[in-house]
Amino acid sequence: MSRPTASADLPAAWPQGVPRDVEVPDEPLTALLDRAARAHADRVALDFLGATTTYGQLAAQVARGMRVLHDLGVRAGDRVALVLPNCPAHVVAFWSVLRLGAVVVEHNPTYSADELAHQLADSGATVAVVWEQAVPRVLEARDRTQLRHVVAVDLSADLPRTKRWALNLPVPRARRTRAAMRGPVPAGVPHWHRLVHAAAPMPAPEPPAAADVALLQYTGGTTGTPKAAVLTHRNLGANALQGQTWTQAEPGTEVVYGVLPLFHAFGLTLCLTYSVRIAATLVVLPSFDPAQVLAAQKRRPGTFLPAVPPMLDRLATAAEETGADLTSFRYSISGAMALPRATAERWERVTGGLVSEGYGMTETSPVALGNPLSPDRRPGALGLPFPSTRIRVVDQEDPTRDVDPGEQGELLVSGPQVFQGYWNRPEETAHQLLDGGWLRTGDVVRVDEDGMVVLVDRMKEMIVTGGFKVYPSQVEDHLRDMPGVSDVAVVGEPAGDMGEHVVAAVVLDEDGSGAHIDLAAVRAWCETRLARYALPRRLVVLTDLPRSQVGKVLRRVVREQVTDGRHPA
């Protein structure tokens, strides 16, 4: 599937053995699972806290999952919401939806009812497969959506039998584990595992076309309004192929650790579709817990770890403190935020393997650039364009004009992994996608002489904390409704390996009604509508907010004020 490219056409830093271009097959994403199930039927596809599922068993469960969804009325083109943490049920539901020709809509299961209501209504999803703990929030949002059916997922049902039995023991540890995995479900809400177990396998219908929509993945893009990036089977399949080409992975040999959330674009591609493409064993973990990772590592040593820098740092610390052996990890790809040199050096010292930084967006499925998986990788650089990916660096004010070599400008990306646009948002699509399929990233970069792309600054004002994106306007909109708050600006401040912390700069009402407001009160107010990672970590009280001549709050100036020490918390 690869086409050789003359060495003269390659950047100086291009990795040896990786072709510049790949030929993306005209097939649906589900062809990856079909091939893996045929060629590696007995290989373990999923390991969930010791419970294993082979590729043959996974394909059989998907056939029953299709029947469940079909009986609930799901047909080609319908949207099905997945509101799930990492678990085998998530994987089965994902492939079941796609096999029916329907569209997966991924959601963060920790979102509030309001956040879920917006996304569910926007996508038009008619069926939702939901973690038990999120079921009450989805039901609260249901009247504002087109949902006809909500199906509950008991996370503990995917555990090995002995661990399921142990959850019922009358001891504190069992109660804590049970509370973390399960939740109350109202009568009348069916359970996914029971439906799948009782269902007869469904023959696969006519497969979807490569150009058909496979996934709606919500992102803020360059604004703060959540909107769905439309990704086709070809987009996702292309990125999985590009990943295999870049890593030069041999099918049936790798053990990938799924510590990234599958509902996030980074985790979905690197841990789900890429893993199936190379018939890897995916070690599925419900959340990131260093002790849980090290326990799994003893049972099934990993070879490849996609992660964000704080995960690498915490795992390296845990391994050093406990003496755990991580030397089976040959490669790690770090993304979603800058990789500190100290973190990279520490990880490589502990594992003896390599960690390389990558770059992408939800709109690029998500990987667009990567560092070589070799000693030639350069910590701090975004990397090189992936195979069949082209880039331009253009004037920030005039994206039709390329800047001179070596100058900084906005990064544009083109390739088979670039999305089709935003769901039902033609104006925003037209702003983001230029003629010729060039995607505006909103990031300012320069390209060095060896072809490496280096991030200079972000045009976007989003905050990246622990690998998650926080859009200031969303936090601001909620805080403006807080009694006693007259005005607010939300910015990020450097937080070491975490990337940034969310800081709320507020102006209090002149009547003194805001005298009670402190950081704890702000966080409590925000918890009702915002994800936990979006909660402010610091509060700064200002007498006024700096504004432009047209009245727009100058977040850049606010950021300078709250980070230079003039306004302590």
TrEMBL record:
The protein, known as: AMP-dependent synthetase and ligase
GO molecular function, one term: acid-thiol ligase activity
CDD domains: FC-FACS_FadD_like
Family annotation (PROSITE patterns): AMP_BINDING
Keywords: Ligase
Entry keyword annotation includes Ligase: yes
AMP-binding enzyme C-terminal domain location: 475-552
Domain (AMP-dependent synthetase/ligase): residue spans on this chain: 33-423
